[in-house]
Amino acid sequence: MPSPVVSVGGGGVGGFCFLPLPPAFSMSTENGNLKISKSSEKDSGPNQSVRGYDLIDAAKKALAAANCASTVSCADIITLATRDAVALAGGPTYTVPTGRRDGLVSNVDDVNLPGPSLSISEAFAFFKAKGLTLNEMVTLLGAHTVGVAHCGFFQDRLADFQGTGKPDPTMDPGLAARLLRTCGTASRPLNRDPTVFLDQGTNFIVDNQFYNQTIFKKGIMQIDQELALDRSTAPLVRSFAKNENLFRQSFVKAMIKMSQIQVLTGKAGEIRRNCRVVNPRK
Ligand code: HEM
């Protein structure tokens, strides 16, 4: 059981984390926000597909039964659940500091996640602003070794890419044709917005295959594919693709670092009783 409030602690998950629903993972936001009101972080575009809220609720309920609901924050629950989900999916095991507190606001405007069609340098600006290095960005995007993306996030690559009348030339033509059948085109999308695996090789395993896929032009989202093409990131992608251990070690370090960004500790924030809403003000 994590200690109530320690002086340091990993924290507001710094922008992303997994919510564990092995083997499905999700992206989430800062400070353990699981609020469901219309204008909450959970409702922002990039987070609309986050899954696993029920699991976080269940963990909180179990803590309440043990009289710990006001001791363990939602931010810690999410961070620990993320750690466990990585291990359950065959990824590395690691320990993360606890002691985070939850945010007092949950605001859609606070969610600032980069889009999937950004260039490497544009995406890196976002990571740098959080104190993360380029190598750490390449490592963390390796989290796309699991989970899915909705067609809407990469459909523009499948046909008439940037007005060329053709698919994105950096995508394997066979893959583009297959995805086109699943997704339809950006101008004529299918009614529902289906999902496809982000790692076309070993989607349910946290491993280095994601990097191999990008080398074979099988990155689903443009940003993933760019990792293997951009001069600043390609060498590390090749190293990770060749050396699974190197990736695992790097992933552990980067995940721990990310979990310590923008942490609330001490008297800051609160320990939410219900992870979906801030505590009612007295
Ligand atoms: C430039 C940075 C990033 C961009 C642009 C990005 C973008 C996206 C997008 C658009 C999706 C698809 C969401 C959907 O269709 O529902 C996604 C999925 C995912 N992302 Fe990221 N992401 C980034 C970084 C990260 C990081 C740092 C992590 C974790 C360390 C991460 C973990 C995941 C996971 C696990 C999924 C699968 C979600 C699921 O199956 O529900 N991403 N990402």
From TrEMBL:
<feature type="domain" description="Plant heme peroxidase family profile">
    <location>
        <begin position="17"/>
        <end position="279"/>
    </location>
</feature>
<dbReference type="GO" id="GO:0046872">
    <property type="term" value="F:metal ion binding"/>
</dbReference>
<protein>
    <recommendedName>
        <fullName>Peroxidase</fullName>
        <ecNumber>1.11.1.7</ecNumber>
    </recommendedName>
</protein>
<feature type="binding site">
    <location>
        <position position="207"/>
    </location>
    <ligand>
        <name>Ca(2+) 2</name>
    </ligand>
</feature>
<keyword id="KW-0325">Glycoprotein</keyword>
<keyword id="KW-0106">Calcium</keyword>
<dbReference type="InterPro" id="IPR000823">
    <property type="entry name" value="Peroxidase_pln"/>
</dbReference>
<comment type="function">
    <text>Removal of H(2)O(2), oxidation of toxic reductants, biosynthesis and degradation of lignin, suberization, auxin catabolism, response to environmental stresses such as wounding, pathogen attack and oxidative stress. These functions might be dependent on each isozyme/isoform in each plant tissue.</text>
</comment>
<feature type="binding site">
    <location>
        <position position="199"/>
    </location>
    <ligand>
        <name>Ca(2+) 2</name>
    </ligand>
</feature>
<dbReference type="GO" id="GO:0006979">
    <property type="term" value="P:response to oxidative stress"/>
</dbReference>
<keyword id="KW-0732">Signal</keyword>
<keyword id="KW-0376">Hydrogen peroxide</keyword>
<dbReference type="InterPro" id="IPR033905">
    <property type="entry name" value="Secretory_peroxidase"/>
</dbReference>
<dbReference type="InterPro" id="IPR002016">
    <property type="entry name" value="Haem_peroxidase"/>
</dbReference>
<dbReference type="GO" id="GO:0042744">
    <property type="term" value="P:hydrogen peroxide catabolic process"/>
</dbReference>
<comment type="similarity">
    <text>Belongs to the peroxidase family. Classical plant (class III) peroxidase subfamily.</text>
</comment>
<keyword id="KW-0349">Heme</keyword>
<feature type="disulfide bond">
    <location>
        <begin position="74"/>
        <end position="275"/>
    </location>
</feature>
<keyword id="KW-1015">Disulfide bond</keyword>
<keyword id="KW-0408">Iron</keyword>
<dbReference type="InterPro" id="IPR010255">
    <property type="entry name" value="Haem_peroxidase_sf"/>
</dbReference>
<feature type="binding site">
    <location>
        <position position="145"/>
    </location>
    <ligand>
        <name>Ca(2+) 2</name>
    </ligand>
</feature>
<dbReference type="Pfam" id="PF00141">
    <property type="entry name" value="peroxidase"/>
</dbReference>
<keyword id="KW-0560">Oxidoreductase</keyword>
<dbReference type="GO" id="GO:0005576">
    <property type="term" value="C:extracellular region"/>
</dbReference>
<comment type="similarity">
    <text>Belongs to the peroxidase family. Ascorbate peroxidase subfamily.</text>
</comment>
<keyword id="KW-0479">Metal-binding</keyword>
<keyword id="KW-0964">Secreted</keyword>
<dbReference type="GO" id="GO:0140825">
    <property type="term" value="F:lactoperoxidase activity"/>
</dbReference>
<feature type="binding site">
    <location>
        <position position="202"/>
    </location>
    <ligand>
        <name>Ca(2+) 2</name>
    </ligand>
</feature>
<keyword id="KW-0575">Peroxidase</keyword>
<feature type="binding site">
    <location>
        <position position="41"/>
    </location>
    <ligand>
        <name>Ca(2+) 1</name>
    </ligand>
</feature>
<feature type="binding site">
    <location>
        <position position="114"/>
    </location>
    <ligand>
        <name>substrate</name>
    </ligand>
</feature>
<dbReference type="InterPro" id="IPR019793">
    <property type="entry name" value="Peroxidases_heam-ligand_BS"/>
</dbReference>
<feature type="binding site" description="axial binding residue">
    <location>
        <position position="144"/>
    </location>
    <ligand>
        <name>heme b</name>
    </ligand>
</feature>
<dbReference type="GO" id="GO:0020037">
    <property type="term" value="F:heme binding"/>
</dbReference>
<feature type="disulfide bond">
    <location>
        <begin position="151"/>
        <end position="183"/>
    </location>
</feature>
